[in-house]
Design a protein that fits this description.
Radius of gyration: 21 Å
Largest sheet: 2 strands, antiparallel
Number of helices: 6
Strand order of the largest sheet: 1-2
Shape: elongated
Distance between the termini: 26 Å
Helix content: 40-55%
Number of strands: 2
Order of helices and strands: HHHEHHHE
Strand content: 5-15%
Structural class: mainly alpha
Oligomer: single chain
Length: about 130
Amino acid sequence: MASFVEVMSWFKKMHECNRLLPNCGNCPMGTGPISKCRKMLHERAEECERVIEQYAETCQKPEFPTWKEWQRNNFPEAVNPIMPCEFASYKSSDCEAFEACADCRNRPIPAKVAEVLGIEPVRTTTIKQSP
């Protein structure tokens, strides 16, 4: 369960995406005048919290460490660098024929590869929701 501050922060983001649309657009809290939201927050706080947390889950994207960060944290004494193209085809790694390996190593590990390797996200970012 999220803290009160987190829930209210997500409520504000949800509100900003929908407030200028007629009847609050496709707001997960429902449509109608804004006073309806305020009333719901007071009368059905637990239900509002659940709806807001579900909204937050759909708006977050995990970010994984870069290959370089991951290797430094897990294999600090390794001499040879891990190359991203060793975990996928050159084409899917956007390999530039070994001319820019440092660029590849500074990219975040792709989610599918991170999942297979058991790498946890280092943070999450908010995906901009379009009204």
